[in-house]
Amino acid sequence: MGETKTMQDLQKATKNSTFLLSGKIISKVFTFLFLIVIGRILGDANYGKFCFAISFTMMFAIFTDFGLRMLTIKELSVQKEASIYIGNILILKGILIILLAIALYGVSMLLHYDKETLKVIYIVGASIFIHSFSFWISSIFIAYQRANLEAIILIFESFSITVLGILVVLKGYGIIGLSIAYLIANTLSLLLTLLLGKAKIPKPVIKINFYSLLNLLKTAVPLGLLAIFSVFYQKSDTVMLGLMTTDAVVGQYNAAYRILEAIFFIPESYTIVLLPILSLYCEQHKTKELLATYKTSFKFLLILSMGISMGLTILANNIIPMIYGKDFAPAIKGLQVLCWTLPFSFINNLVGTILIAKGKGIIPAKAMGLGALFNIILNAILIPKFSFIGASVATIITEMFSFTIQFTALTKVLGVVPELKDSIVKPLLATIIILFVLFLPHNTNFFIKIIIIPTGYLFLLFLLKAFSKKDIKTFRQFFKKSSIQ
To answer: Which of 45, 117, 327, 371 has a CB 3.0–4.6 Å from the CB of 248, allowing a cystine?
Structure first.
């Protein structure tokens, strides 16, 4: 009976994960399309101003969440008095939003932006605070294992932003009109969330108890810090470029970075699938299987990320003008530098997931916090001298820094150093050869490059025997277990 119940829970969890993952994939496709189209229409300066406004307001808006979303998912699964608990978080969230809205207004005024930038910040800020509410409410759906509802909201929101945003800029309403469209789309998303939640979640009981609120805030601190570190880690470069350079420079940097954001989803999706398998190995003390999966996944992610980085480096001269137009030509160098964060980012996802599976989730959180601080210091040094190329280099060094912390910690946790020499040397050698052959001759046809790069890379990996029979066997076992779950 117990085994049957466990299998039913696993099937339900897998079903919910599939819904959420599908929603996120579709949402990211719409978001990427939206950013590309408005980038081409607005030009680098206005595009940079809009991206700056989002990044700037996000650094305030993240404090309105402060781990409450994750805490809600965790606690509502065991809370008997759900209505009171939801009411307490609603009060706390309302207080945080009011305080952070005042802080956003005050800080933006002190920084003496022009009137248009201030308007964009205020409108985008309002929309992100509204999104914060709908994002928290959707966490209740997940707590009650209704992830399909959050998937619907994610798709609706990104679709609304894309359609309204593109229509507005095509009509010539500019960056202010785009910001208003962003606000309308997020408001519609909140209304849909409330409509879906009306029959699905308990009605909140509003009862102000300062002791309960303080206790709730104290409980949320660890999760809140992780969320804050994550946003500062990702957005500080854009904000610092906005403060230290021009809107056009911010636009050039974000043109390159948005392409990478679409790719970051690959290791995140892979490690989500990997986590339950790794957790099972840790629980059953199957160290041999854990190390085998670690080594094979390390090799797979490194080969994939280095191949993508190599492709972006060679094709950047074609990709940037094709996506954004000729005005964004300076972003070519940015993409060629920034894309080399991918190998470290991919592996950081894997190492962090294994640490979480081992019950050491605090280590990735510390690495994220130290990385955010380190990134701010590097940006302060490099941006004045090298503009957005300096920010790109700072991002690479920060990922390397984070990798060093997590990899060292994981080695201590596992008690062994996996043999990873071949996993690194062979993909690196294949990458260098392809770069040497294709990077120098700029007159090579774009479509010929698209064919030669993956074909040549795979041929060299095969020639170098990058994947062993044991690696292939490990992959088969992994995917077999994933399909069973």
So the answer is: 45
The two tokens of residue 357 are 């599976």
- Residues 263, 267, 268, 271, Cα dihedral to 10°: 170
Give a yes or no: residue 236 inside a domain: no
What is the residue type of 35? L
Distance CA 392, CA 209 (A): 47
Region 455-483 average pLDDT: 66
Range of the domain at 386: 245-485
Residue 471 has pLDDT above 90, yes or no: no
E strand or H helix that includes residue 256: helix 247-263
Look at residues 197, 228, 259 and tell me which one is the last residue of a structural domain: 228
Residue 5 lies in a domain: no
Same domain, 112 and 34: yes
Q: Report the C-alpha gap between 58 and 242 in whole angstroms.
A: 14
Burial letters for 375-411: b for 16+ Cβ neighbours within 10 Å, e otherwise? bbebbeebbeeebbbbbbbbbbbbbebbbebbbebbe
- Per-residue confidence (pLDDT) for residue 266, from 0 to 100: 79
Residues 203 and 259 in one domain: no
Residue with the two structure tokens 């019950």 = 359
Residue 254, judged by CB atoms within 10 A of its CB (0-12, 13-18, 19+), counts as: buried
pLDDT band at 8 (very low <50, low <70, confident <90, very high): very low
Torsion of CA 340, 342, 345, 350, to 10 degrees: -130
> How do residues 261-311 score in pLDDT, each as one tens digit?
878 877 876 776 677 677 778 878 888 888 888 888 888 888 889 999 988
Residue 455, amino acid: T
Distances 288 to 391, 416, 418 between C-alpha atoms, Å: 41, 11, 11
Q: What is the pTM of this model?
A: 0.73
pLDDT of residue 273: 64
Residues 332 and 200 in one domain: no
**End-to-end alpha carbon distance in the chain:** 18
User: What is the tens place of the pLDDT at every residue in 63-118?
Assistant: 777 777 766 766 665 555 667 677 777 777 888 888 888 888 888 888 777 888 88
**In terms of residues, how long is the chain?**
485
Last residue of a domain, one of 170, 195, 228: 228
